[in-house]
Amino acid sequence: MSATGPSPTDRASAARAYRPALRPGVLVGPxxxxxxxxxxxxKHPVSGAAFEVGPKEHFVISRxxxxxxxxxxxxxxxxxxxxxxxxxxxxxxxxxLGTRGLxxxxxxxxxxxxxxxxxxxFWKGSRRTVADAHGTTGRLHRLLRxxxxxxxxxxxxxxxxxxxxxxxxDPVAAxxxxxxxxxxxxVLIPFAVFLWFSICLHELAHGIAARHYGGVVTExxxxxxxxxxxxxCTVDNYLFLPGLRAxxxxxxxxxxxxxxxxxxxxxxxxxxxxxxxxxxxxxxxxFVGVVQALSNLVPLPPLDGYRMLxxxxxxxxxxxxxxxxxxxxxxxxxAVAAYPRRARRLYTSYAVTAAALVLLAVxxxxxxxxxxxxx
Length: 375
Hints:
alpha+beta; Outer Surface Protein A, domain 3; 2 domains; 4-stranded antiparallel beta sheet; 14 helices; 57% helix; elongated; transmembrane; transmembrane helix; membrane
């Protein structure tokens, strides 16, 4: 036995026989287009720290399951990319993963510093209002789970679609009803309070839907921009939820709940006599509520529809990256040569779509105001 320890040959053999594995709970995200690059997010299960890797690094990381050594990974890498994985790159990647505590057996990093319960100022800030947001949404999810089954959701979805079509099919009645609502403060004020609570339930719906798909809800609180104050609900691993459907459902859950809450008003209106003076007011309430709910599905930041579009097209930070692309594009084709064709088409299409949506929103709002004022 040598007193100097293992020889270089022994160390090399041990390194080649090493079968690394990711630590349990590490989250690996799907491919996302970010500018000219395709990236994957990797997130630590304890610290919450996340970083990006490219497709080749993701290919290697996804094979670290404790059953493959360097020779196995190199062979699979060559079959996939028709390139040999350099051993120094393998060593560097393992070193990076080990340093970040992402490999099995790595020491636990220091837990993240807890966020203060309140941040900001009187004019702008937020305050955490629920001590255990994950547990609270979990209890709500267990309570509401029977209503999340198809036998309950399919009739609700059908009723919501009928409501939206019925309200938007008669814009003249909708605008007349909105005017009636605006001129009756004793009705308008309670309805405004209802809408505020509806928005709060909108946020809780995101959290409950996330819990349904295995998400982690980290915070529930109030966020204010004086004089407005709204509830917020933060889903920590939203981007890592399994599959596109889960992400779309979580993003759309808030607007869907806003529409479901309008169904009692629609039933009330349907039961009234057509000549009843309360019908126009209820029509206005339904119109305002439907517009408020559907506006969240418009694909502009920071609305839920913007997140849904990003998930659908597989792109991160769609609006900022579109702005960056357009800035570079004005410098000439060479400035965007690194962008693949898909990225160029996507960012150009989103720029045109966003501009059209803004113009439509301005024109629609202006038209509605003029019709209300000069009716």
